[in-house]
Amino acid sequence: MENATFELTSELTEAELTRVSAQFESAAPETILEWALEEFGQDVALATGFGAEGCVLVHMLAQITPKARMFYLDTGLLFPETYELKAKLEARYGVQIERRASRLSVDAQARIHGDRLWEREPNRCCQLRKIEPLVETLSDLRAWVTAIRRDQSVTRASSPIVSFDSKFDLIKINPLATWNSQDVWRFIFKHKIPYNPLHDQQYPSIGCTPCTTPVQIGEHSRAGRWRGTEKTECGLHR
Ligand code: SF4
User: What is the pLDDT of residue 14?
Assistant: First the structure.
């Protein structure tokens, strides 16, 4: 990457974003993150669900500055291992990963919408427990960083590195878009980055406890999410 400095303004056009994104196609994720922090400072934040990719990005951001903003969506239904991993990452890197959550507790949701909403209406459940707190969090930001990779699913295959996220009305940055799973795990082992031990128990993709199952050999890495339904995404990413 010859020149990682771009003049961004609030009037950035789609064409300019496309140009910036194209220039980052061959850039290291760390270069993209440095640019993001330089351009947006405290107005950019990493959203992580503590998957392997998210752990990589926490590591990379912390090397640039432990003051980089990071947050997670606490649905109240995450695996105990996920909460433990959050604490481990914060201790190892001296970062703070902000907790964002629905105003409705799981019990309150059950009282209002009925018990085990995720079984009857998973989209509604994701809307309440993930999307609404995400919208609130993103409304204070100018850009967000996500951990998505193009090879994770068909719906993510054409994700740009930098683009305008019209769903949430801010710039979206995917520094690991061009990486594959081997790149992620090579980086994790090289830098001894903490990761969720469930990954070693056939959970390549980890979400909420009621909606995540282990995968069998030969299954797609996201096959364990919302198994038995047609749902493949929580709605955070188009
Ligand atoms: Fe609800 Fe499942 Fe979505 Fe979690 S992943 S918010 S439990 S539907």
Answer: 84
Helices 29-40 and 52-64, axial angle in degrees (round to 10): 60
Residue nearest to atom 3 of ligand 1 (CA): 126
CA of 87 to the centre of ligand 1 (A): 22
> Mean pLDDT for each consecutive 10-residue tract of the chain (238 residues)?
45 83 97 96 97 98 98 98 98 98 97 96 95 97 96 90 95 97 98 98 94 90 82 75
pLDDT of amino acid 12: 66
Q: Which atom of ligand 1 is nearest to the CA of 234?
A: 3
Pocket lining for ligand 1, CB < 6 angstroms: 75, 77, 118, 122, 125-126, 129-130, 207-208, 210-211, 234
Instruction: Reply yes or no on whether 234 is catalytic.
Output: yes
